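Lecture notes, unit on binding sites. The following record was shown on slide 14. It pairs a sequence with 5'-O-[(L-methionyl)-sulphamoyl]adenosine.
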Amino acid sequence: MSYYSKQNNCKFSLTTPLYYVNDIPHIGSAYTTIIADVIARYHRLKGDDVLFITGTDEHGQKIQRTADNRGLSPQVHCDEIVQSYHELWELLDIRFDRFSRTTAARHHEIVKEFFQRVWERGDIYLDQQQGWYCVACEEFKEERELLDNKYCNIHTNQKTEWRDEANYFFRLSQYQQQLELIYQERPDFIQPQSRRNEVLNFVSSGLKDFSISRINLEWGFPIPQDPKHTIYVWFDALLGYITALLDEEQEPTLENALAKWWPINLHLIGKDILRFHAVYWPAMLMSAGLPLPEKVFGHGFLTKDGQKMGKSLGNTINPFALTKHYGSDAVRYYFIKEIELGKDGDFNQERFVKILNADLANDFGNLLNRTLGMVQKYCNGRVPQLKLDDIPQDNRLRLIGQVLGREVSESYDELELNTACEKIFNLIRSSNKFIDESAPWSLYKQEKQSEVEQILYAVIESVRLCSFLLSPIIPNISTKIYQQLGFDIDFNNISTNEKELPFDLHKSWGIISLNSTINKPEPVFTRLEIPT
Ligand code: MSP
């Protein structure tokens, strides 16, 4: 039996974490979900069959306590918070395929079946658990990890709680060697490299069995063999990824769930939950005899104005307000362009506005506007009916444009999303420069019509290609541009019209004359005010 996932070119499944519903979504969850959505959209654009999973993690002490404090039943509380996730994903134009809730009845069936497999494997036993528990992390902490006075190293305003209770344990220690072998044989399993090193260090220091049940906790699934114990929230939540693979009408069995989409190609997570995904989860899967996911990618953390963000620090960013104010493309673009995926990144309102004005309003928006204006004026609103071969081979936009599709595609494949933006903006900036330097307005006056047409063709084609390649990131702007260029395409709805949008054709340079008439130029991104 092989634990290695197979590479599949036309099927791509990816997940965000299943978010805790102790509160409405914060900017961290928005960040992870935007990245996942960009990747999912890129794969759909390529014509892949995509399953993009997100959802919520609703059990455990943290949620139960929050609901108690609000005087609500946990389920009522969860239903309310889940709504706010749907609202935010709608605002941010997130096109997920599945929303997995761990309180769903079908999820219970999957958890029972999986638990039974691991139980039969002999990997679960009862013992005494003593240790410091962080309810916010829902995790026992090593004493050496804690801050002064036993505060959590991640939730630095939360004191951990001492626990001394009978728990069921999972024999993680049994899997140390197999895990090490997998990390070695599959160097891309954990990314980026820095995160992989963290995991290798953690594992090589020796894996301990971990407790997978709680007592005195009602909010969760009971252990079938001993119902006074409740299954540990993380054990339950990770399995939410499997439940999500079921079609709506399918009977909830592991066999059904795993039939089409397993193994998942990409688990995208924040760096704080790396161990669960890169150590515990693969061990649980091996215990149940299942293949492992292809890749776990741990992104960095966001800070605000260089400071750690937190409610107690009073410096959180409200993703609802931000998106309502600036629009989803602006928010998506900033986080993708400004932060190298995998590294920590900062949010600063002034930089946010400056970047959006510089890139989207000035460089890209103006380029479109001035070019379409000139096509109206100098070419009667018709795209110059030229072919690739009519453009000189050493035309600098042609030179960049001809390789851009491939290069940007590689960046997306490598999850180097900010590099994809940089490459695309290189063509946008070169196009502006090209117009300035070749001055088609004076050539027009000199009645050099064919030169004017060559220039405008090269620029308009570059605008088209850039908006196509940026469409996973800024789908609304790209749609407006494509429509102004006369294409009947909506990048928010490409699964239905992929035949009209063959990837290999649209990612090449030199196809704009497939379409002859352009529409009236309209601003695609309005300049933003610098905040005072
Ligand atoms: N419920 C678990 C995941 C279970 S997956 C089976 C969980 N939920 S969470 O709501 O706390 O996670 C939120 C996600 O947001 C994580 O990926 C986390 O890394 C991310 N972020 C939380 N704060 C963040 C920042 N300040 N910056 C960027 N991302 C951060 O963990």
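Take-home: The first strand starts at residue 11 and ends at 20.
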